[in-house]
Amino acid sequence: MLMMLPVAAMSFSSKSAETSPSKQDLPIQVKVNAGDTLWSIAYRYRPDTKIPMAQMMRAIYARNPHAFYNKQLTSLKADTQLTIPDNLDNLLPPAKPIVTESRHIAAAPLVLTAAAQAPDSTIDKNRSAIQKSRQSSKGTTLRASQDAIANDPVINDSANLVIDGFLAAEFRYFPQSAAYNKQIDQQWSGVAQLDFYLPWNDEYDAVSFSPFYRKDSEDPQRSHFDVRELKYLHVGDDWEIHLGIDRVFWGVTETQHLVDIVNQTDWVEAPDGEDKLGQPMVHLSTLHDWGTLDFFVLPYFRERTYPWWQGRLRGPLPVNTDVAFYESDDEQHHIDYALRWNHMLGDWEMAVSAFSGTSREPILRQQLDSSGAPELVPFYPQINQLGLETLYINGSWIWKLEAIRREGNLIDNYYAADFGFEYTFYGVNESAIDVGWLMEFQYDSRGELASMAQKDLFIGTRLAFNDVDGSEILAGIAQDLEFSDSRSLLIEAKTRVNANWTANLDLWLFSSNQPQDYGYMIRQDDFIQFSLELHF
Known about the structure:
Elements: E1 28-31, H1 38-45, H2 53-63, E2 81-84, H3 127-136, H4 142-150, E3 162-173, E4 186-200, E5 205-216, E6 224-235, E7 239-246, E8 279-288, E9 291-298, E10 325-326, E11 336-345, E12 348-358, E13 363-368, E14 374-380, E15 382-394, E16 397-407, E17 414-425, E18 434-444, E19 455-464, E20 472-480, E21 487-496, E22 501-511, E23 527-535
Parallel strand pairs: 10-14
Antiparallel strand pairs: 1-2, 3-4, 3-23, 4-5, 5-6, 6-7, 7-8, 8-9, 9-11, 11-12, 12-15, 13-14, 15-16, 16-17, 17-18, 18-19, 19-20, 20-21, 21-22, 22-23
């Protein structure tokens, strides 16, 4: 039985809705993903490299003022729908542009970054044509584009400290009786996150800082503070380096992210595993004609968070996070390494990754605490992992695959895969609404006692209303193919109340009658969650 996961954050690519043939003459609709920047979106959808980047960015902003917090170009909102203006030919300069041609950096600098965490997984309109255009042309240099921005009085904000973030109130209600003693049936939480961004040197250097705090009314281990990001960034001509605490997302599939191993899961945040703790790292990214290489040195390990006695969404015994054991004598100070190559070839995107170090997924062992009561403690083994990601775009079809092979001296070597497709109907009944259908199959060779997705089928739908409020609904069911009564269901709905407030409603349902099924532990933990967020 699978805990169905919502849209996944990724560094693999930025993806949004793809156009239908009947709508090629209409303005393009683009979904803003976490990590997307106004610079990168303008670069991707610029129909002609002769259009100055500053002009293209300004045109997108003028058409979509709702997509920016406090009308600041440095505060692009993630999970927002952008309309790329048509008739962009009027932005072409009358004379030869003052830019040279050379290789472009794959990732734009972290200026004008979308302020959120989890990107959508739909695909950009006209993406195939854009990719081919980018491959046939070397493109403008990053420095020339940044110089244009720096000289533009509307866009240039490189000398100022940018501060944004959000405050949220969240309520969870569990309608079923708890399966284990001491568990609560409702809980309130307050959440705060601030994002500081200070660029200089015409955006080639920057420091970013994102502290996060949650205060929970019932579960003391869900109340926690984390530094999501505290890093220095420098951008070169065909390379960039990140030093400090950061978050990196790998993966292309909808329901789980097998390859995503750099950051530790912040499990108390949500059962989908999407939220990640900040990870100390040295991250070097280099661009080549044959793809982008990312090198990671990870000098410190972050332990996974778990709910305590009062918390739901756990097994019969809570995990004592004050105690942890490691295979390595260096424990949390073991130095881990990761490498990833990714490349686009026409309508194909692919990535191959390797990781060596401390497993982010612990083995839970039972022992007695100081009072003689049983408890679970995490044991973190050393592992080696190879990962593969592929994504293929064909019209309204998106085909996705993630697969891993994981080995270690103290674990059972195994492999796992998640593959499927997404098909989108655009402008249903000549409206602005897009309807997407998703299907994915998950497999894990360890079986049902070690994984919640050992042999499961997920079917879901996504409704994007494409309105100014960014309204969207995601619903799906994951069915265990070995246990007919084991399944999970999720409905997520979100919309913007006004320019600063957003409302989110989530419903999770779990079903399992087989004690040998991993999902049996949370069979009584159906819940509904409502949150209200203030963005600034």
